[in-house]
Amino acid sequence: MKVIILHGLYMHSIVMQPLSHKLRQMGFNTQTITYNTVAIDDNAVFSKLDDALSSSKTNILVGHSLGGIIIKRYLASRKPTIQSISHIVTIGTPIKGASIVGRIKQLGFASILGNSPQHGLDLHEDRWEFPQRLGCIAGTLPIGARALLMMDRSIQSDGTVTVEETMIDGMTDHILTPRSHTSLIYSTFVPKQIHHFTQYHTFEH
């Protein structure tokens, strides 16, 4: 199997290398992709995904935060078969948009988000209707900008994205781990769960 990994907002593929390395140790072929997260060009990032797909192996797409939303948009655009892409795993992805984005706009800082809200970070209604199995991993350690911006400590979150925002109707499985939004990608928990999900179509609860 080949795992193709997309990073989140304000990041670069280099931050996904530790996850990529852990997955390679488990026997996966891996590739990370870089894209401009505040000047998103669908055609450019989708072409990178097209080129990364293995024609001889089954592909798994993994996205952290915004990366998971880009993957969802890619599936809607390309409509790949389950034989080509079998599983999707999102890590801290606000799969139907993030409420913190609305708050950032309200405070007058929309420019720092670039065009990412128009590419899926704005809150929107949706459900998972793709043939690929979707596994969503969410953090529950609320260390991040959310507490300062939203003042909603009672809502379970990873410090940026709420647990509820990582869920979508039609997903295959969902699992929680006590990690913050960014530390999710460096944990040993995440690659183990990716491996389990691709083997058994469920997380190891």
From TrEMBL:
Source taxon at top rank: Bacteria
Family annotation (InterPro entries): AB_hydrolase_fold, PGAP1-ab_dom-like
Molecular function via GO: hydrolase activity, acting on ester bonds
One Pfam family here: PGAP1
Residue intervals of the GPI inositol-deacylase PGAP1-like alpha/beta domain: 54-121
Matching SUPFAM superfamilies: alpha/beta-Hydrolases
Protein name according to UniProt: GPI inositol-deacylase PGAP1-like alpha/beta domain-containing protein
Organism: Vibrio scophthalmi
